[in-house]
């Protein structure tokens, strides 16, 4: 039985993830047809609750809901208008009056989706909370690897390198959890100031050397560099960051010959990733966006159908 | 409560004879096999479609193209059910537009599967004609749907279960009538 919510990849077993990927395959078929719509979620309402701006993720979820004929209600709020505790609860109360069956929640504070799950009877999908987790991103990344890596034969023995601001990245945390659970090795790479030692695990290694991280990797994922990190003094100059941690053709020369180049988007061309590499044959950045819709369709289907 | 066998409705030879007759009827109705395509509904409609296509091929020279349809995403009870159905792949490797399509299934009962299949199929394009072939029609329709080709009409009560077993899916070949007791 699928878990009630998707708060964390941790709560989903390998069997759950496999079932999700199989369902996503069917959803991908739907999105290849002329009529990109099925009636599966007719009568269900999906609410998007974005306390932190995100055009892409919200768009992807709304597409996933509408392609299955669900109704969508959207609530966008600056997290500034909400302190914690009661005002969050009040917001949920207001939104809950719309009677959504499932909420897609993004919040700058870690743990908010978990809290909301305690307050409502609706299903909750975490679309990113603080620096803690972004489960659908990790799921679509692993799914994209499974679909696109030449001759894919399972995650065992595969190596994923994630490069960039690991400290502030929920994408890095969720991917490390999911890929190691599926049997892969993960290397996290970034400046020492942005590489929290507690992320080191039996199958997760940390390094400040990008060549070491890329060595033999089957996928190299660049994380978006956010400008404000620079101001906080966590980074040297942009030029130095680019030289030491930019994912380039030279870096990929150390990776597996069929290695995939990944990025959760939106990309800063020629900052964390070389523009030419992002457009190259090994880049699956666009596939990640398309697969994002299929995987989110599968998430909505699995959380909503068969619950009565 | 256990499902107890009540009667054997069709044996191996009877199934083969019924399918042979249906194959001939399909070709007769469509005036040949030229524009024809067969689409099986998961699970047992798929091997039935394969067998009908092979039979048609054996007397018309060429087998019509085959597809398989999973109707889960088109069911009308997804907001009400307690168990999540596993979504299977749909594979219709030809253009449905302008074709004479024969939907194939093992048992016609309420008609809801056929309704869902019509939705799934027409979302792929606009076939010239859609016809419906079933091995067993057991009655109790809940929608205005009927089959064009029927292997055997069987009067049943709602408490009974019709179980079709086919060589490729079940390793055996029969149609059984069972009853909860």
UniProtKB/TrEMBL annotation, chain A:
Arranged from A to Z, the UniProt key words for this protein are: Pyrimidine biosynthesis, Transferase
Q: Which residues form the Aspartate/ornithine carbamoyltransferase carbamoyl-P binding domain?
A: 5-146
Q: Do you know which InterPro entries this protein is assigned to?
A: Asp/Orn_carbamoyltranf_P-bd, Asp/Orn_carbamoylTrfase, Asp/Orn_carbamoylTrfase_sf, Asp_carbamoyltransf, Asp_carbamoyltransf_Asp/Orn-bd
Domain called Aspartate/ornithine carbamoyltransferase Asp/Orn-binding: residue spans? 157-303
Annotated GO CC locations: cytosol
**Metabolic or biological pathway:** Pyrimidine metabolism; UMP biosynthesis via de novo pathway; (S)-dihydroorotate from bicarbonate: step 2/3
Q: Which residues bind L-aspartate?
A: 84, 170, 224
Q: Where does carbamoyl phosphate bind?
A: 56-57, 106, 134, 137, 265-266
Catalyzed reactions? carbamoyl phosphate + L-aspartate = N-carbamoyl-L-aspartate + phosphate + H(+)
General function of this protein: Catalyzes the condensation of carbamoyl phosphate and aspartate to form carbamoyl aspartate and inorganic phosphate, the committed step in the de novo pyrimidine nucleotide biosynthesis pathway.
Subunit structure as annotated in this protein's UniProt entry: Heterododecamer (2C3:3R2) of six catalytic PyrB chains organized as two trimers (C3), and six regulatory PyrI chains organized as three dimers (R2).
Name the family the entry cites. Answer: Belongs to the aspartate/ornithine carbamoyltransferase superfamily. ATCase family.
**What is the protein named?**
Aspartate carbamoyltransferase
Organism of origin is uncultured Truepera sp
Encoded by which gene?
pyrB
């Amino acid at each position: 039985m699928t878990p009630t919510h998707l708060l964390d990849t941790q709560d989903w077993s390998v069997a759950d993830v496999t079932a999700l990927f199989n369902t996503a395959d069917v959803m991908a078929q739907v999105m290849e047809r002329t009529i990109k719509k099925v009636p599966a979620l007719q009568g269900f309402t999906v609410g998007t609750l974005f306390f932190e701006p995100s055009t892409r993720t919200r768009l992807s979820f709304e597409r996933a809901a509408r392609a299955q004929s669900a109704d969508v209600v959207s609530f966008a709020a600056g997290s500034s208008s909400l302190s914690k505790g009661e005002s969050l609860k009040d917001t949920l109360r207001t939104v809950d009056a719309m009677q959504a069956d499932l909420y897609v929640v993004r919040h700058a504070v870690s743990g908010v989706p978990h809290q909301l799950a305690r307050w409502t009877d609706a299903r909750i999908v975490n679309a990113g909370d603080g620096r803690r987790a972004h489960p659908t991103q990790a799921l679509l990344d692993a799914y994209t690897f499974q679909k696109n890596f030449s001759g894919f034969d399972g995650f065992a023995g595969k190596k994923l390198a994630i490069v960039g601001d690991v400290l502030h990245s929920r994408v890095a945390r969720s991917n490390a959890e999911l890929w190691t659970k599926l049997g892969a090795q993960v290397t996290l790479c970034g400046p020492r100031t942005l590489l929290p030692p507690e992320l080191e695990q039996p199958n997760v290694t940390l390094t400040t050397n990008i060549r070491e991280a890329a060595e033999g990797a089957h996928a190299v994922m660049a994380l978006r560099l956010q400008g404000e990190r620079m101001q906080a003094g966590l980074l040297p100059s942009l030029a130095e960051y680019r030289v030491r941690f930019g994912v380039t053709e030279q870096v990929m020369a150390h990776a597996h010959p069929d290695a995939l180049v990944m990025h959760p988007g939106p990309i800063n061309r020629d900052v964390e990733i070389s523009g030419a590499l992002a457009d190259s044959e090994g880049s699956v950045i666009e596939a990640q966006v398309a697969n994002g819709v299929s995987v989110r369709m599968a998430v909505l289907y699995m959380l909503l159908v068969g619950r009565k | 409560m256990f499902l107890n066998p009540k009667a054997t409705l069709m044996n191996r030879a009877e199934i083969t004879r019924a399918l042979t007759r249906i194959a001939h009827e399909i070709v007769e109705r469509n005036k040949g096999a030229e524009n024809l395509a067969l689409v099986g509904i998961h699970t047992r409609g798929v091997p039935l479609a394969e067998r009908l296509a092979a039979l048609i091929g054996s007397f018309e020279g060429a087998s019509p193209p085959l597809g398989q349809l999973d109707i889960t995403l088109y069911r009308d009870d997804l907001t009400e059910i307690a168990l999540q159905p596993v979504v299977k792949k749909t594979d219709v490797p030809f253009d449905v537009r302008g074709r004479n399509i024969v939907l194939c299934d093992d048992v016609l009962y309420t008609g809801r599967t056929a309704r869902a299949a019509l939705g799934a199929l027409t979302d792929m394009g606009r076939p010239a004609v859609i016809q419906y072939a079933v091995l067993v029609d057991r009655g109790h329709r809940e929608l205005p749907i009927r089959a064009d080709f029927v292997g055997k009409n069987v009067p049943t009560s709602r408490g009974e279960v019709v179980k079709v077993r086919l060589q490729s899916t079940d390793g055996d070949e029969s149609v059984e009538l069972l009853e909860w007791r």
